[in-house]
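Lecture 7 notes: from sequence to structure.
We start with the chain below.
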Amino acid sequence: MEQRSVQTSKRKSNGGVRASHQPPQQIEVGYLEVKVETDADSVARSVYNTGSSVFGTYDERTGTITLDVTVPLRVQQESLMHELLHAIIKQTGLQWEEEKEETVIRTLSPFILMMLRDNPDFVAWLSK
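Predicted structure tokens for the same chain:
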């Protein structure tokens, strides 16, 4: 995964991203309406606290995903999918160790995203 430094906290929260590239503000995940916020400073604090690259976070208490939109759009999309999978897992009641959950999500999220991108007819069919 792409590496970046903690210096993201110095960037503007919208990162100059065009409005058309902003993620949806809310996504229905099972019985929850997950809020999606963009805040590079908040995500940068997570990078600092965890010591690893983080481009998004999911707060189970508030049902909020926070994304760093200063990174490329593809990284944002992958991060949103990653955090949505955390939200799904929390709703299922699965009790995995944090490391196992991260491994499963890091493995599945890019493939789910590729499948959706590569099969627009399938996505349209699912929406009916």
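Points to note: The chain has four helices and four strands. Residues 69 and 78 are 12 Å apart (CA to CA).
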